[in-house]
Amino acid sequence: MPTPSDPLGFLSSSPHGLKSDAQTDLVQVLLYEIMRVKDIIKYYDSIPNGGGQLGASILNELVTEAYNSLVNYDIVLMKKYYDLLLNCD
Fold this sequence. Notes:
Strand content: under 5%
Mean pLDDT: 83
Low-confidence stretches: none
Largest sheet: none
Shape: elongated
Helix content: 55-70%
Structural class: mainly alpha
């Protein structure tokens, strides 16, 4: 069982992963999206001959800004970056 201080503990403690109900915390869903987009960045980085370099660079910038919104606990920016990351693919 994850410790209470584990910010990603919600992923392993729920049998269905992320819950999408009114109880879901913005911090948790933003962290989930950051992790998901980081996997997409790995995909873009793996495209031969630097074909995904621009996409990876843009997504890296979004992830960095999303992390900054978490560090500063800026709810408005957290919502903005959550919406932006949600639409990344």
